[in-house]
User: Fold this.
Amino acid sequence: MKLILGILLSLCCFAADAQPWPAKPVRIVVAYPPGGGIDILARQLADRLSAPWGHAVVVENKPGANTIVAADAVAKAPADAHTLLMTTDATFSINPHLYARLPYDAQRDFAPVSLLVLLQQLHVAHPALQANTLDELVKMAKAKPGSINYASYGSGSQPHLSGEMLKYKAGIDLVHVPYKGISLAVPAVMAGEVQLTFSGIASSIAHLKSGRLKPIAIGGATRSPLLPEVPTFTELGYPEVETHAWFGLFLPAGSPKEAALRIYQDTKNILDEPVFRQKQLIDKGYEVVGSSPAEFSNYLKKDLQARGIAVKISGAKAE
Assistant:
């Protein structure tokens, strides 16, 4: 009798463990406010994932403290794969180098799911700047050290790291002027308050076409199909000047691997839809990736190391 009860108990436990995923609504916690590029993509994915998953997929915005608020919340969520974190490189590649202490461990407390897209930033200038190429900019900066300034959206932000790495590799002196957000940095260049900044294609292409900004260079290994005339830092001899940001999905550590693979595959299917891929991603300046959990994990290790070097060179500290 005890043997039979033991077998039945084992079968019940197996049935519980084999419960299909998802078993309830899935929450995507976005580390930024509503309305931005990452929030829009999260909502587009949520709309398309609810049907194949058979449950509602809801987006919850938890901005604050340079993505730390959202990361901390997901790190402490149940490891049942029903809570996802959608965030940028700030959380996992930059913050660990900026902050002496974080409430989460970037490598221990999360399971990478997929690197969705990369966003290469443009190095743009006010049209009155008497330099139209990177070579001309470097020569001008060397001739008049400290006479050219560039805007960022804070110490340790991507434009700050890119600007300081360019200074280091080119041996020039540019003056860093931090603003409170990219929504202020780009207009500052157009107004002539500062001469340079780094900006995403989507937020600057209209200003390039109107002549209110001019391009100097762009990050990435290859030129953007939206701006094929703009050379990359790599081809100009500065491959170390990384300008990219990325959007990625994560689960709390210990979440079922099968669920992570399901999430990766289903989101990749959406990213690979020809119309969605072109109109919602490529046409907005995104470089589509859609990597697997294993590929994303390997990428994160390299990105963390590269950003560590950039932060050290920049001297950035958490504000």
Observations:
- Residues 293-314 form the longest helix (22 residues).
- The longest strand covers residues 110-119.
